[in-house]
From TrEMBL, chains A, B:
Single GO term (MF): CoA-transferase activity
Source domain of life: Bacteria
Lineage, broadest ranks: Bacteria, Bacillati, Actinomycetota, Actinomycetes, Kitasatosporales
Keywords, comma-separated and alphabetical: Transferase
Protein name, as recorded: CoA transferase
Pfam families: CoA_transf_3
Coiled coil: none
Gene3D superfamilies hit by this protein: Crotonobetainyl-coa:carnitine coa-transferase, domain 1, formyl-coa transferase, domain 3
Length: 405, 405
């Protein structure tokens, strides 16, 4: 399953995480060559079980590609005992429960470090394990609200709106990946494992850098700016309507503006005193935006983009979700690739945004719940057929519903 | 400057990157204990030089905390020669130029790996170094457009709007950090360095997971949903107006809804057949949202949040940028901390979202341009006073404007 030459080849990860942040971190670990043992509750991770709408099962498949599945009943003594044996065999443990849950299960870091001091214990939570918000409920929407992303998004004078991207979940997931690889590096040098944590709120905080630095340096509140430049210091810088959608355009330099003026068939505007120089254009932003919109309105978004690109004006079509889902560039790079899934049939799988010159993405799809359990336990703990049956009879794995397979 | 026990203690990084993605990655490296040599053009990185508005200089200070500065003229033979000597002394090189720029400067990976095969060469770009979009212009706005974030953000039936957070720049930066730590881990085990790259577009792609998986499983286009749940399968799930701002509320479970009904002073709604069960509430979403808004409109956002929190209903106040900038939780955790800056005076510095149990953030502020150059070159390359003067006279450092200091 793992490539021998892959960067994290030989690293075994116990993954207790669920939904987005944790599973995305371990997907990235899998794609860098680690072996991921996804430890699920007896009925399966709840994203796997959301059968009513088709999206969640597909998301589960995409996020858990290349992972092995083991159902464990962590509320049974047998489940906990087996988990502790696995901890001895593992390099990394990942979880994204609310702080305190692992301690209540009796498998917090203070316990596990006695069992395996080389273990890297990595956790992600909404606000971290310390500070007044530590136990606040944290989901992508609430952390976006608390971290200022909602307030900073939308048009001035209108209601705030969340980012349509799950920025908190996934930025925490990426940080969790980096936390683990950093701790693994340190372990190579020192022999020590350790606990490392990621906060979702801190993961998104720097993303408001333009607005934050403007506030810090002026002391003034910062209003949302729609599609304008966060510092309102570039023009044009916006999203413009076309015949069939929108196109994003920005002219940081005067040469961009001059090139755009030529495209618009009005080369004289490039040198006109009203528009030459970014300060002049910023002062007449609305007028500038109207001029640009007049031109984009005569084209499709792809036509506008092709012309802007040829003229070296920074721009991009506003692609819809369906367009992004089948983006030819992502396919050409091998980032999106076809995969066969045991239940869903042919699906589109995604790679890692981190590409090593000499490493391949895993070809294997997400495992059905508990499907690899016997092989896995034989491999990691030398559990034989007989012992496996005993563990099952004692309730270590709980009961797997047929529907969850 | 670096903590001996810090995870990346002893790692030396040459940082050629600029603005957000690269400098954020090396800020995180600095906070994990690496030594960062920020190599700037003779006049300084352009974010440092944007003097007209105060925000960019503050952003520069926040993003470059704890880094040493070296001005190098990479268009001079002396600058290139000195750079190559530094490469021998370094563990990591970071850059986020448009693909091809380093090759044109004569210091691409193919050249540098001959000089130092243990070097980790890490690069971030908008679309990666391969594929049809490789040389497309990439800034946060254009990548948000291309990756579907703009299309997925905003209210249904209204114009799309970008995320107010610079999600592309910073998610690429976090991935770049993880790329480097992964490559360093591999180098510990294999002795080999290597080239690793990050694509901004691929960094944000998974953030649309809910929308993408919905599209992949139905084949249908996915419309933006304002503040609603991306799959429209939870209600209430939105941002509601209060007396002084907004509050985000979500009721994934029936127990959340029952608790909310009690808070609203209408406990009978908790069990009412129109609202009991998430499917019933989803079917009457607008009606449910009106009921909730009626209640939130009587409170301030903090009052609403305190009551919801006490009743264990997932929620959060929609905090403004100014509120986030002085968030007491982030200060209590030591994520935001005071720092003295040579030009700006006392500033607010930020830590890393990755917290190791036993590691401290760097106390040092961003260096003035080229301020540490002599010490740095003595330390890394044993360059003495005389040789330093020769290098300066030969133009290796170019000319530093006084205003940039």
């Amino acid at each position: 399953m793992t490539t021998t030459d892959a960067p994290l080849s030989g690293v075994t990860v116990l993954d207790l995480s669920h939904v987005y942040a944790g599973p995305y971190a371990t997907l990235m670990l899998a794609q860098a060559g680690a072996r991921i043992v996804k430890i699920e509750p007896p009925a399966g991770e709840h994203l796997r079980r959301r059968g009513a709408v088709p999206g969640p099962r597909y998301a589960f498949a995409m996020l858990n590609s290349g992972k092995e599945s083991l159902a464990l009943d962590l509320k049974s003594a047998e489940g906990i005992a087996l988990f502790k044996r696995l901890v001895i065999a593992a390099d990394v443990l990942v979880e994204n429960f609310t702080p305190g849950v692992m301690d209540r299960l009796g498998i917090g870091w203070d316990t596990l470090k006695e069992i395996n001091p080389r273990l890297v214990y990595a956790q992600s939570s909404g606000y971290g394990t310390t500070g007044p918000y530590a136990t606040y409920p944290a989901m992508d929407l609430t952390v976006q609200a608390m971290a200022g992303v909602v307030s900073a998004t939308g048009y001035p004078g209108s209601d705030p709106v969340k980012s349509g991207a799950a920025v908190c979940d996934f930025s925490a997931g990426i940080n969790l990946y980096g936390a683990i690889t950093t701790a693994l590096f340190r372990r190579e040098r020192t022999g020590r494992g350790g606990r490392v944590e990621v906060s979702m709120m801190e993961s998104v905080f720097p993303m408001l850098m333009s607005s934050l630095s403007s506030h810090y340096s002026t002391g003034e509140e910062v209003e949302r700016v729609g599609n304008q430049h966060p510092g309102l210091s570039v023009a044009p810088y916006s999203v413009f309507a076309t015949k069939d959608g929108h196109v994003a355009i920005t002219c940081e330099g005067d040469h961009h503006w001059r090139a755009l003026a030529v495209l618009m068939g009005r080369p004289e505007l490039g040198e006109h005193e009203h528009y030459a120089g970014v300060k002049a254009r910023v002062a007449r932003r609305e007028e500038v935006d109207e001029l640009v919109a007049e031109w984009t309105g005569t084209l499709t978004k792809e036509e506008a983009f092709e012309r802007l690109r040829a003229a070296k004006v920074p721009s991009a079509p506003v692609r819809t979700v369906a367009e992004v889902a089948s983006d030819p560039h992502l396919a050409a790079r091998g980032y999106l690739y076809p995969q066969d899934h045991p239940e869903l049939g042919p699906i589109t799988a995604m790679g890692s945004p981190i590409t090593f010159e000499d490493s391949d993405a895993p070809a294997r799809s997400a495992s059905p719940l508990h499907a690899d359990a016997e092989d896995l336990l034989r491999d990691l703990l030398a559990v034989g057929v007989e012992e496996y049956e005993q563990l099952a009879a004692a309730g270590a794995f709980g009961t797997q519903p047929d529907t969850a397979r």
